[in-house]
Amino acid sequence: MPHILIIDDDVELSDLLKEVLSFENCTVCTAYDGMAGLEAMDSRVDLVLLDVMMPKLNGFETLKQLREKWDVPVLMLTAKGDEIDRVVGLELGADDYLPKPFSERELLARIRAILRRTQNNKESLQNDAVVYRDIKLYPGKLEAYCNGGLLELTSTEFALLHYFVLHPGQVLTKEMLSLDVLGKRLAAFDRAIDMHVSNLRKKLPDWPNGKTRIKTLRGRGYLLVEGD
Q1: Which fold has domain 125-224?
Q2: How far is CA 111 from CA 30, 45, 126, 142, in A?
Q3: Global pTM?
Q4: Would you list the domain boundaries of the chain?
Q5: How far is the CA of 127 from the CAs of 108, 151, 180, in angstroms?
Q6: Which of the residues in the chain have pLDDT under 50?
């Protein structure tokens, strides 16, 4: 039974979401500001729904502090048409975003996609490793190593790296990555994949020859460079 934490100062909306998610067999708790949300966070939480505009501590600062301790998936709730909020949220480690107002159907679809991805990782055997060159991944523990060093990745960044490692040297389009990693079709002006790849690239050390491991192919997509 998924445990979801809603952090949103809109009490009426939070109560409505709690009711909807309860019908989906989710355990839901709510917090009406960022500070209360951080205090309510614990290891049982499988997903956080996080609003941007809140008193005491806004969504960005809440996410920043959350990421210092937890790699739990976070779905940001942003103002409709406010692209800068989405970009900043993704840069800080959000897994996805959903503009307000949104439909119940769209919300549930996003939540199911995120939970499906993280649950699949949890069900993997703890000691089964996926290895490519000097990259070693443990899906069951969401742990990633490169050149012997631990990479501090969010769950989405881990899933993205896992996908790249399974397809080295192959051109992966944004459409493929959005559908297979995020679990949603790529929409016009959707920057989520671009931002997740950018964040992952910053955390992956370059090859010894100085070349980046993930190459952007303008108009085509991305590929994991096989190295020398």
Answers
A1: Arc Repressor Mutant, subunit A (1.10.10)
A2: 16, 13, 24, 19
A3: 0.79
A4: 3-121, 125-224
A5: 32, 17, 24
A6: 125
**Cα separations in angstroms, 122 against 116, 126, 159, 171, 218:** 10, 8, 12, 28, 34
SS3 117: helix
Query: What is 7-35 written as a DSSP string?
Result: E-S-HHHHHHHHHHHHHTT-EEEEESSHH
**Predicted confidence (pLDDT) per residue in 179-219, tens digit:** 999 988 888 888 899 999 999 999 999 988 888 999 999 98
Strand partners, 27: 3
143: left (phi over 0), alpha (psi -120 to 50) or beta: beta
> What is 3-121's CATH topology?
Rossmann fold (3.40.50)
CA distance 135 to 138: 10
Determine phi and psi for 72, rounding to 5 degrees: -60, 140
Widest CA span of the chain, in angstroms? 57
